[in-house]
Amino acid sequence: MSNRYLIEQILSTLATVESDQIYADKLIETTLRNHPEWNGAERGEYVTTCYGMLSQKRKLEAAVGSNSLWAMWAAFQLLNGKALPDYDEVEDITVERIEANLADASESAFLSYPEWLHEKAKAEYGEKWPAIAKAMNSRPNTYLRCNTLKGSAAELQQKLELERTQTTLEGDDALLVDSGANIFKTKAFQDGWFEMQDVGSQRIAPLLDVRPGLRVVDACSGSGGKSLHLAALMNNKGYVLAMDIHEHKLQTLKKRAKRAGIHMIETRVIKNSKTVKRLKDKFDRVLLDVPCTGSGVFKRNPDAKWNLSEQGLLELTQLQSEILQRYSQMCKVGGKLVYATCSILPEENRAQVEAFLANNANFKLAEEMKLLPGVNTEGDGFYAAVLERAE
Ligand SMILES: C[S@@+](CC[C@H](N)C(=O)[O-])C[C@H]1O[C@@H](n2cnc3c(N)ncnc32)[C@H](O)[C@@H]1O
């Protein structure tokens, strides 16, 4: 296969993501599946260049002064210290030209974020913002969460090593994948020993301070990343109700729970406001892992930062405050509620919690966790607030 064909596939993927508003990760996955003949290096180059160019889109446009994908690809190569092939499409792209253009670029273009998002984040994080912005433009690590119902992270590490997957222990239950083939094809995965989960995401469930026997609701459970973790922390004893508005996500959750050997999670689709109202005062712990902009996980979904708008942010914050107000009713007196997002924007985090506390004197803020890429985590950005319900 010629190198030119690989480049054309990269550019075609980027053009389709832009024109058809398709999620990049899905299209990248499909393209890889359609090219089983690509070797490891080719697959790596395809994935790294697609994600890298998506993430650096605004910077690359500034570097070449246009949105020509060939020119942007050439700039991406040069900025990464690679030589350009002798193709007509890239003949006028030089390091000197790129450097001159970037010297005149605005800070938001240089960091490669939409202007409004850059201004918002800069106002919140000041001098720390460039480090956060750069960290969120890098490729994410792969982390696993050991299913402690099966055994310890050290045991899992040994099992994976036998399957030629090298990992590093990161805290109690997390493993960083250093190298190896497709982890989902390992026997350890099929036997339910782990789930793929960012190291920051793994810090949310422990904030609920659960123990065996409690009644817990994960009210925006999606396909259950955190429900499964809660069940493991409860040693599979007690009750976890996983709810979402999307049935297909709950179906995936059921399959994951089965693989993990978990039998205390019940799933329930939220059909209307009554589904939640009926559960008033019923739970010792409530997790609200609300829908959000995903501004903490741009490493994984770099296309999301270009699709996000101020209007979209406003709509999400309205939904978040409604969920927090209505779903908090499920928390018993003396119980705990965790409000969490994978966002770094204060409107979705601290501001939501402050507004809620101002209207709900029976809840108190017990703890806050803020994970900022490039500042205090190698993983994604997360926010969580632990609220306690008093009389
Ligand atoms: C951040 S995701 C949850 C991720 C999940 N907790 C995990 O760890 O894998 C937010 C979820 O909220 C769901 N959602 C959106 N609107 C909702 C609503 N009004 N009530 C409950 N869930 C909702 C979405 O379908 C999505 O699965």
UniProtKB/TrEMBL annotation:
Assigned protein family: Belongs to the class I-like SAM-binding methyltransferase superfamily. RsmB/NOP family.
PANTHER family in the record: NOP2 YEAST -RELATED NOL1/NOP2/FMU SUN DOMAIN-CONTAINING, RIBOSOMAL RNA SMALL SUBUNIT METHYLTRANSFERASE B-RELATED
CDD domains xrefs: AdoMet_MTases (cd02440)
UniProt-recorded name of the protein: RsmB/NOP family class I SAM-dependent RNA methyltransferase
Keywords associated with the record: Methyltransferase, Plasmid, RNA-binding, S-adenosyl-L-methionine, Transferase
Species of the source: Pseudoalteromonas xiamenensis
Superkingdom of this protein's organism: Bacteria
InterPro entries found in the cross-reference section: MeTrfase_RsmB-F_NOP2_cat, MeTrfase_RsmB-F_NOP2_dom, RCMT, RsmB-like_ferredoxin, RsmB/NOL1/NOP2-like_CS, SAM-dependent_MTases_sf
